[in-house]
Amino acid sequence: MKAIRYHVPGGVEVFRYEDRPDLVPGAGEAVVRIGATGVNFIEVYQRKGQYAEPLPAVPGSEAAGVVMAVGAGVSTVRVGDRVASESFHGSYAECAIAPAERLVRFGPDVSMETAAAVMLQGLTAHYLLYSTYPIRAGDWCVVHAAAGGVGLLLCQLARNLGAHVIATASSDAKRSLALGAGAEHAVDYAGLVAAVQEYTAGRGVDVVYDSVGQATFTDSLRCIRRRGTLALFGQSSGPVPPVDPQVLNRHGSLFLTRPTLAHHVATTTELAERSSALFTWIRDKTLTVHVDRRYRLANAAEAHVALESRSTTGKLLLIP
Ligand code: NDP
After folding, report:
1. Alpha-carbon gap, residue 182 to 163, rounded angstroms
2. Which of 18, 118, 157, 276 is most enclosed, with most CB atoms within 10 A?
3. What are the pLDDT digits (tens) for 8-44?
């Protein structure tokens, strides 16, 4: 089978499109023929060596496909099942292995592309809105990079819950997308603090969902009401430097959290509950996945260039 591998960390030139041996599932595992693989920012950090991992590596953890083989002791999925997961070991490939208990089954009413697209970014939007700061009708929130993969899902789900969303994005086209996804207001980053003051009559928002990090952190703090929450869940613009806890005091006894998906789907029960909710909303069309671009597996480097260049919206997929 074919797979993307890299042997040293670096720029996109380290990606190789290689022949790999066929996969054999171990006990408790399944081999899945990949129909669509999700491209996520974490794979950029891993490729660059910012998040260390053993090399050589096949990138990717989010995908959907069809079960081809199962290992000993697997009873939750069968050959032929349509499945998706955020826990594949190397999904930039024609086939990939995952622990069977991390596979979510879905029917023909959901496409491979949509299923692949929500396993990482959708589950993230879910835990941010339901667990990190459980948002309620009437709450105000800021969603940064609102036309991005996680951003567009956050806008829709927050709006569906009755919250007021103030979106940031870097261009008119991106802001239009965010408004279409349910944001009430969409502004550029520079105008955010003034806009929040105006739209919330000086109170501030209840929560900021911040995936941008370094470039937005300070303004995020300035937007939040007393005792509100900053959910810093990404660093598309770079890592936030060390923070003096007194900053949280000065901005109104704020709560700062730096959550990650793995801690919110650690049990199969939690994975099942969150993914079941997402698939229900996809089926009843209260959640729409915006696939911006599809690339052939061999062209994974182009997908990374696009993601890093800030030119993308919504989801990027690799199609083997
Ligand atoms: P996006 O689709 O949001 O793409 C990144 C966006 O960030 C860009 O389109 C851009 O939007 C904005 N951005 C702002 N500054 C920069 C910059 N300097 N370089 C590149 N982009 C910039 O990506 P994802 O939805 O896949 O992920 C967003 C972030 O969330 C990533 O940091 C990712 O690692 C993190 N994440 C964290 C998870 C967790 O559980 N903690 C899970 C999933 C993702 P604009 O042009 O509008 O500014």
Report:
1. 10
2. 118
3. 999 999 999 999 999 999 999 999 999 999 999 999 9
Q: Is the CB of 236 under 6 A from ligand 1?
A: yes
3-state secondary structure of 237: coil
Contact 144, 188 (CB under 8 A): no
Q: Which of 37, 39, 41, 121 to mutate to test the pocket of ligand 1 (most atoms within 8 A of CB)?
A: 41
Mutate which of 144, 236, 308, 316 for ligand 1 pocket (most atoms within 8 A of beta carbon)? 236
pTM of the model: 0.97
- Are 144 and 151 spatial neighbours (Cβ–Cβ below 8 Å)? yes
